[in-house]
Design brief:
about 170 residues, alpha/beta, Purple Acid Phosphatase, chain A, domain 2, six-stranded mixed beta sheet, five-stranded mixed beta sheet, 4 helices, about 20% helix, globular
């Protein structure tokens, strides 16, 4: 099961659209982690043949979209949230502890616009960064999260170099 994970589009959808157009036939679902959930709704309508999950972020006002969801994918419990309520700017400890209390195997979040891809042996922490407005890195980023037939999880942060080129973040430096 391959999931495209994006966050923090903030109304700028061209990169997200390009990624989905290029790899849509290789993924089994799309997750948008907030800011803006209207963007997520628009992408869901455009790419209606791909399962789509989204939540709202701290810049999504007056929406009926929940700010957290628990997904069960291939037997793994994955919490999706924006991350601002768990104070992810300062540390990932709060969000990791919060997700573990809820029985999650992984937690996906955005908010910081900076990618994170960590596994401590008990919880997977995954932030795709921002596909539109990156911080702390010169390129937009997105995530691919894979759960294999044995239930093994692996996240990959991808760099959006330009409309024709994506590369793994660990290959950039």
């Amino acid at each position: 099961m391959k999931l495209l994970v994006i966050s923090d589009t903030h109304g700028y959808l061209s990169n997200a659209r390009n990624v989905i157009e290029r790899i849509g036939d290789k993924i089994n679902g799309i997750i948008h982690l907030g800011d803006h959930d209207e963007d997520a709704k628009e992408l869901q309508e455009e790419f209606s043949d791909i399962p789509f999950y989204y939540i709202r972020g701290n810049n999504d006002y007056g929406m009926n979209t929940p700010d957290t969801k628990m997904l069960n994918i291939c037997g793994k419990k994955i919490i999706i949230t924006h991350g601002h309520k768990q104070q992810v700017y300062w540390s990932y400890d709060n969000i990791a502890y919060w997700a573990q209390e809820k029985g999650a195997d992984a937690v996906f979040f955005g908010h910081t616009h900076r990618p994170a891809n960590e596994y401590d042996g008990s919880i997977y922490i995954f932030n795709p960064g921002s596909i539109s407005l990156p911080r702390g890195i010169n390129y937009p980023t997105f995530g691919i999260f894979d759960i294999d037939e044995n239930g093994n999880m692996r996240g990959t942060i991808m760099v959006y170099v330009d409309e024709d080129n994506f590369m793994r973040l660990d290959k950039l430096f």
